[in-house]
Amino acid sequence: MILRSLTVALLAGLLSTACVRDYAPPTADQPHAILKVRRTYEQVSGASLRERVLIDEYRGFDHASTAVEAAQAHTDALLIHPVPVRVGVTSGFFHLENHMVSETYYVQESYMTTESYSCGSGTSYRSCTRSTTAYRSVPKTRMVMRMVEVSDGACERAFRLAPKVGGVYLLQYTYQQSGVCSLSCFEQVATDPGQTQQRPCPKAPPVD
């Protein structure tokens, strides 16, 4: 029950990022670093997979695939500003089912109210009131059949990175099972021509 609750909470967080604004990366001619995000899955479940990378509170990228495609490791790269940043990686497996769900709709309801108007004649003016019919929208609920996403497992991890201009960084996200995953960060440094060496990424200090 605890694991199921964790899965539901993680998937809810995953879906809530639909309202998150896109990250505005630097252009190639501006100061920037390169961030690579590699994802591997030791366990695959459900029919579909959704992956998201958040740069602070902004969406770096949003990727959807079949669960079968997730069996192959895949990497995406993006340019990031050379400033301390929190990078979060979230993934969730799911399938679709028809469920009865509650839906809110609105109906127009009439009611009686009073309104003021000018009355009288000649130089004698006064204010009078009269009854009138007005309308308002009233919320109602009903049960309807909808195709909904059902979680088959989800996980998320984050790393605070301190990138520098020209730096190349690799985030390795490894999913083992629902709620169990890891995120490692490596800086790729050029050594001999055509060769690179990996070392742990410089961590950004925590936010006060």
Q: How would you describe this protein?
A:
The protein has 208 residues and is mostly beta strands. 7% of the residues lie in helices and 64% in strands. It contains 1 helix and 9 strands. It has one helix at residues 2-16; strands spanning 33-41, 48-55, 58-66, 74-80, 85-121, 124-161, 168-177, 180-190, 196-200. The strands form 2 sheets. Strands 4-1-7-8-9 form a 5-stranded mixed beta sheet, with no helix packed on it. A 4-stranded antiparallel beta sheet has the order 3-2-5-6. Strand 8 (180-190) and strand 9 (196-200) form a beta hairpin. It is elongated and about 100 Å long. The model is unreliable at 1-17 (pLDDT under 50).
Topology (elements, then pairings):
Blueprint: H1 2-16, E1 33-41, E2 48-55, E3 58-66, E4 74-80, E5 85-121, E6 124-161, E7 168-177, E8 180-190, E9 196-200
Parallel strand pairs: 1-7
Antiparallel strand pairs: 1-4, 2-3, 2-5, 5-6, 7-8, 8-9
Count of separate DSSP helical elements: 1
Shape field: elongated
The residue ranges in which pLDDT falls below 50 over 5 or more consecutive positions are 1-17
What profile does the largest beta sheet have? Answer: 5 strands, mixed
Order of helices and strands: HEEEEEEEEE
Q: Strand sequence of the main sheet, in spatial order?
A: 4-1-7-8-9
What structural class do helix, strand and pairing data support? mainly beta
In total, the number of strands is 9
End-to-end Cα distance, whole Å, is 35 Å
Assembly type: single chain
Radius of gyration: 27 Å
Beta-strand share of residues: over 45%
Mean pLDDT metric: 87
Helix content: under 10%
